[in-house]
Input
Amino acid sequence: MNIGRIVGVIAALLLLAGAAVFFFFRYSFSAEGLYRVKTAMGVDAAAPERHIVPAGFQGWAVLHFSVEGAPPLKAEDDALVVEYPVSGSLETSTPAHDDAGFLHREYFRSTADGLVPLSRMGEIWGEYNMKTMEDDSGSAIGRSSGFFVGTMAEFREAEIPHPGLELLELPEGGPD
Output
């Protein structure tokens, strides 16, 4: 085998490896991408969630799962779609999952021009999952999750949405 052919094969392999790494990082860090990678690897993963707040919304967006008689969440492209009303509080009959990974959540604001992504550590604060009810064995039968939309200063001033909810303390300063 000549040296030119060996160099060509090595270059092709490096190019292929680079394309695979690019593809992985480009598509796997979105909620849908992480879900697809996990399920392809045989890991039981909760479906990603797309949380959509209305235009101009500021405050706590709270979702109560497993509420009898409430409508189920819509599913779209392998993701649960959570569209909050102006009040920011929503109930669904859809059962909650126990996957506490916030990486499966994406946040958007609905505008006249479509959905605009909201950024963590800039517009989204205080993400939480908490048990609200449990059965006799201590297993969760009711769950609530939520997040705050606004500036860090607004988040610091806002009342927590549930008694007993303990959020991480934020350092002083930071973006407002």
In short: The CA atoms of residues 21 and 118 lie 26 Å apart. The longest strand covers residues 124-134.
